[in-house]
Amino acid sequence: MSLKNYTSINDIDHIETWIQEALMIKSNPLKNNELGKNKTLGLLFFNSSLRTRLSTQKAALNLGMNPIVMNVSGDAWGIEFEDGTVMNGSTAEHIKEAAAVVSQYCDVIAVRAFPSLTDKIKDESEHILKSFIKYASVPLVNMESSTSHPLQGLTDAITIKENTTKKRPKVVLSWAPHVKALPHAVANSFTNAMQKMDVEFVIANPKGYNLNPEIVKDTLVYHDQKEAFKNADFVYAKNWSSYEDYGKVVKTDLDWMITKDKIGAAKFMHCLPVRRNVVVEDAVLDSENALVTEQANNRTFAAQLVLKKILENV
Amino acid sequence: MSLKNYTSINDIDHIETWIQEALMIKSNPLKNNELGKNKTLGLLFFNSSLRTRLSTQKAALNLGMNPIVMNVSGDAWGIEFEDGTVMNGSTAEHIKEAAAVVSQYCDVIAVRAFPSLTDKIKDESEHILKSFIKYASVPLVNMESSTSHPLQGLTDAITIKENTTKKRPKVVLSWAPHVKALPHAVANSFTNAMQKMDVEFVIANPKGYNLNPEIVKDTLVYHDQKEAFKNADFVYAKNWSSYEDYGKVVKTDLDWMITKDKIGAAKFMHCLPVRRNVVVEDAVLDSENALVTEQANNRTFAAQLVLKKILENV
Amino acid sequence: MSLKNYTSINDIDHIETWIQEALMIKSNPLKNNELGKNKTLGLLFFNSSLRTRLSTQKAALNLGMNPIVMNVSGDAWGIEFEDGTVMNGSTAEHIKEAAAVVSQYCDVIAVRAFPSLTDKIKDESEHILKSFIKYASVPLVNMESSTSHPLQGLTDAITIKENTTKKRPKVVLSWAPHVKALPHAVANSFTNAMQKMDVEFVIANPKGYNLNPEIVKDTLVYHDQKEAFKNADFVYAKNWSSYEDYGKVVKTDLDWMITKDKIGAAKFMHCLPVRRNVVVEDAVLDSENALVTEQANNRTFAAQLVLKKILENV
Fold first, then answer.
1. Which domains does chain B have, with CATH numbers?
2. Is residue C308 a contact partner of residue C39, using CB atoms and an 8 Å limit?
3. pLDDT digits over C267-286, tens only?
4. What superkingdom does the record give (chains A, B, C) (predicted)?
């Protein structure tokens, strides 16, 4: 299936096929390097980025595309997203113009825009992402929005497939401590992806940290981490701030930190960046069971698959 | 005619020919994509940019050039423009060295440097632009200087030509309100361009907002916006701060805002970014008469024509 | 000899051969522009840069590589370099992950990271550079670290060779005044390079400004600038902060400023950026004896030689 926009894991029609296609790309990354010739990918960052910034550019280059990177806040100016506003404040350009204009120069636009974590309704409306889709005239790739990070979710699915021989491995998404309030996007997209795969998927998080029930659906949620980790093949750690008490950090003690003792022989995954000895102890990250570098590597091929599907459709 | 530097609309020898050449490029943007092979365009930004940043890179890529972008202040350090200074203050590199050095790595240099709007004599001396021309050993493109924005002016000329069937359309440049003190560069270059074209060109601005008389020359200036808009085919809106009371905002009420009622069937133009419902109401920008996206699109072909002419001369 | 990493002048096995190879590249910069095809150079800047930023990109482009630039602090987040830390402070990602991750996307990594100038032991440990080498899985190029700037040192060696007909010219490295505390890296690498060449090399600096004795070795150090400059063919000026009273500025008066009177017919060199009329007077920089622009030009070919040697080894 060809692809118009890639905004959430729901845009994946058949995840097992996509994983196979991504692994084909990984085995021969330059096979399609004429497909993007003379095509431009505009990467717009409203927030910081390392992996996404580099891997998405690398994916574009592998396809022969020209990436153009822009830090929206530093390089340009404040963008207005509200309709009908009298723009006499701090924003200097409306998304209607900004998205239309960028579409004149870029064949595909990729956007990163984190949530406020203060206004649940606004964040959940995905107004930035949806405004770009509405007003841009070219395909859009989500490089992490308020509620989802589907390039990461696809990456994680690929990485799990690559690292198991089991027909139906057990995968645990575990909340882990952090000092700052973090978004739900990675946890949401990972959950979405696992629900589409043939895995035994459970979530472990403290009380007060349940994810959005519309994401969790009928996935089993444990509040006892030890119980959840029993017979786990993969432990995926991630901090997120409270969803119920929206954006708040209600627990910071380290009893939910991932340790070698806790996970045993299970493979360890994390999207990175990760705070060592807060989210997870050194002994886990420095062991052979840590898949974090391989996850980072697979970001390129997830992005490349998405861009390839979009380019085939342009 | 081949081109050494492109610093103002005065560098255009015959604007109607340039417009035709730009439209040829637009109809086949990749025709000359070997011309810039192994050539580097250095884009130096002293100020923020969205359209110029993206369209100039796109133009370079269409010609096969390698663009290298640098935000001078964030990426490097303060540049000194005065001769003979004892540099024991905040500037760390003199333009003599900076321009000579960048010339070692770039085949063409493009510079954006806004005016202070506090020192009229210094701004009008175009000391930044002229210092680059003096000390660089390669051609220079003005991406908006203190007093002119000739890539925009050429773009606007192209857009008007594309959107009229009249032999001699009426074009009005109208001042419009804004909350901040803005430069005169766009208005100046638009005026320069219109004066070279076969159009009926008039300017509308409140008292106290006359542009530099050396730019206006014998162009008719109305202080009555309604009178100026009569039978207009194009209304080009732009705010600028006072020239007489240099850099000051002497009027902020919205009675000069562009409305659908005021412009009727005339096409609406603006260089963007534009503050909605301050400079112009939503009803105008959201109508089919708004040419702003097409103007943004034509920025690529204006830049590409300029770079092509320069490359043919290198 | 092929090259794994380029971290200091000590990585140059035979400097006279390298100079000849660099001059060959200079005479035909595009000769090897297939060598880097589909290879990516990641340029990571922890600090500002103009020459290094542009010349290293230009070198990569000449070899057909794709450069990807990242300002680590602005574009990404604080990186932790200490082992075993509980990362509950301002750093969000450990160098172990960061270096491993960047290695997934880049075939070569180039890093600029200045010293603190407050902690001599930490700076001299070169912990940032060494951490990258330890945890990256691809070759690393030093774009100026705490204690060395070997792309500049190689450049300077090339420039001296190009600009002398003498078998054994006299080269003086002279301290010069500055208002801020500057690193020792350029002075160190220049000293390293000169000690490997067939030149008469001496250093001139005020008392209290001796460089690290392990760098100086048996090079003659004058505290009398006039005495040192006698019969000099090249005067290389550079400020550095005190090494003994680490990182302190103990002298700011201008009696050590380089003047035309002082250097006579000697060629003048400086790595740039240079503060005019503080480090050196206008009359020297504006004279034909100043080689600073040619040094900047040669930065490209030094970087290109280093990248070529690394690519031949990948």
1. 9-148+299-311 (3.40.50.1370), 164-290 (3.40.50.1370)
2. no
3. 999 999 999 999 999 999 99
4. Bacteria
